[in-house]
Amino acid sequence: MEPDAQLAPRVLLAVADPLLRRVASSALRARGYSVSATTEEEAALTLARSFSPDVVMVDLDLPSPEGGYLFDTMRALTDAYIVGIAPPDADMARIRALRAGADDVVAATLNPDELAARCQALLRRPRQLHARWDPMQASVIALGALTVDVGRKEIRVHDADVPVTRIEFALFEQLCRRPAEVCSRTELLEEVWGPNWVGDTHVVDVHLSNLRRKLQQRAPELRFIHTVRGVGFRLSNDLLRSIDEPIVTSQAGSPQSTAVVTDAPGHNDETETDRELISA
Prior knowledge:
Elements: E1 10-14, H1 18-30, E2 34-38, H2 41-50, E3 55-59, H3 70-77, E4 81-86, H4 91-99, E5 104-107, H5 112-123, E6 140-143, E7 146-149, E8 154-157, E9 160-162, H6 166-177, E10 183-184, H7 185-192, H8 203-218, E11 225-228, E12 232-235, H9 237-241, E13 247-249, E14 255-258, H10 272-278
Helix pairs in contact: 1-5, 2-3, 6-8
């Protein structure tokens, strides 16, 4: 029986092999998933926007209409769990996908029961994408050229919108609320993905690296995010030096709190780690 599309977990399947599409789709539907499947790259992107999948399973060999691989486009487009599908002997492709932010990578020859079980395991992870805002907290954070609108989930630099995913926004909001502190990877994982996250903690690095590039496209003269090697992330001294007094305001426009951040004597924010990650 076809699962209720309104209640069943949604899986988007994008694979080049029509036989694999049919077999995997049938197996997932038989186990209670609502499935949209395609072998066309353009259709896959359309479904990612309209179908609102919980899990996206994508062939690592499929090209993207926007250039590069469809996997990379999907990862930037959606906050769904991303599962790469690769040939059994494609070890380097599997490693690349995991390093690039895949939640899992499976072989194209995977048993249908295991395929469904892996989807179920991913969905057990509480991915808390919507920020847990206190209504008494500030809704707009202004830091010099940077404005973070919590209510509208928007980031602006020099009044220009920066297109970000929900995960990128949630991570950056945590940094902006603690401008003088370092946020560890564990803290960020717990705030954004939830306390029961199981996986590589460097998924945080992947999303912040993507966000860093987007921010610097708007203001190449500024560094926004600084990596503290072996610890975590914080706002960069470049950003904090560009303001006299970071002001946080409420929706009504009244000041909620202020923070003045000063550098430790002799501290230089321009580290090799920053340069490596910014150019990544």
